[in-house]
Design a protein that fits this description.
By secondary structure, the chain is of the alpha+beta class. It has 2 domains: 110 residues, MutM-like, N-terminal (N-terminal domain of MutM-like DNA repair proteins, Alpha-Beta Barrel); 127 residues, Helicase, Ruva Protein, domain 3.
């Protein structure tokens, strides 16, 4: 899915392009993504914000909430341009443009709902990891009593706002921690390294994507260190990267930089 750094780029772009535009119609190619009637979505777009791992379009008394999930993307095109084959839903704008929600695997969901209403499958409530509220003390407190594996912990959106598969892997590589380590067994030093890695990794990714300024529907991931690189050498030590299964998710990691035993060979890469 588009993760936090992706949405940090996409949402401001959508804001610039769409605030003040009026939706006057729409069409559906892949109805499985809809949780509303397309004819209901009408009116002026007053704002666009990130809502956890979804994008929230503010129409005043109603909101259009789109959760892109695994493969969802957004695009804004001129009216005469042919929509790509992966277009799931198209919203017609009064000025002739169209807002496209593209999803070739049809895992995303589209809701037309009251402001702030609960959205099925949209998990909210975690601490904003790029805000001043996310301190080392906060992370230490969050880790107390947590017995799950580290990657599962990082992907818990009731705890963190927010990480998915790709950036959880990148954070753990940056911190030098194995994805299967148990949270409750981390040392204070390891938790501090994890905190620094979360902030540094997501901030760097956000800034890199913004600097690249890709087309709206393009997902930029070529700068990642481990995600999707099984069998390639680690950027830090040259060891061959591996993949492990964790509760239905895959986790990419370096077996040398991220040892699987508590305290064994832990190196704080900030000080190395």
């Amino acid at each position: 899915m588009p993760e936090r750094p992706d949405l940090e780029y996409v949402v401001p772009r959508l804001t610039e392009m769409l605030v003040g535009a009026k939706v006057v119609g729409g069409s559906v190619r892949k109805p499985v993504v809809l949780r509303c009637a397309i004819d209901e979505v009408r009116g002026e777009i007053l704002g666009v914000v990130r809502r956890s791992h979804a994008v929230n379009f503010d129409f005043g008394e109603r909101h259009l909430v789109i959760s892109p999930m695994l493969a969802g993307r957004f695009d804004v095109v001129e009216g005469g341009k042919k929509a790509p084959g992966d277009t799931a839903v198209s919203f017609d704008l009064a000025d002739g443009r169209r807002l496209l929600y593209r999803d070739d695997v049809q895992m995303g969901k589209v809701w037309w709902t009251a402001p702030g209403a609960p959205v099925p499958g949209l998990v909210e409530g975690g601490v904003d990891v790029l805000s001043p509220a996310f301190t080392t003390e906060k992370l230490r407190a969050m880790a107390k009593g947590r017995r799950e594996q580290l990657k599962v912990f990082l992907m818990d959106k009731t705890a963190f706002d927010a990480m998915g598969n790709a950036y959880a892997d990148e954070v753990l590589w940056e911190a030098g921690l194995h994805p299967k380590r148990q949270v409750s067994r981390l040392t204070a030093e390891e938790l501090d390294a994890l905190h620094a890695a979360i902030v540094r990794t997501l901030t760097s990714a956000r800034d890199t994507i913004a600097a690249r300024a890709p087309p709206l529907p393009e997902k930029v991931r070529d700068f990642l260190h481990v995600r999707g690189k099984k069998g390639e050498p680690c950027d830090r030590c040259g060891t061959t990267l591996r993949v492990a299964g964790i509760l239905g998710h895959d986790a990419y990691f370096c077996p040398s930089c991220q040892p699987d035993a508590e305290g064994k060979g832990f190196v704080d890469w900030r000080k190395a």
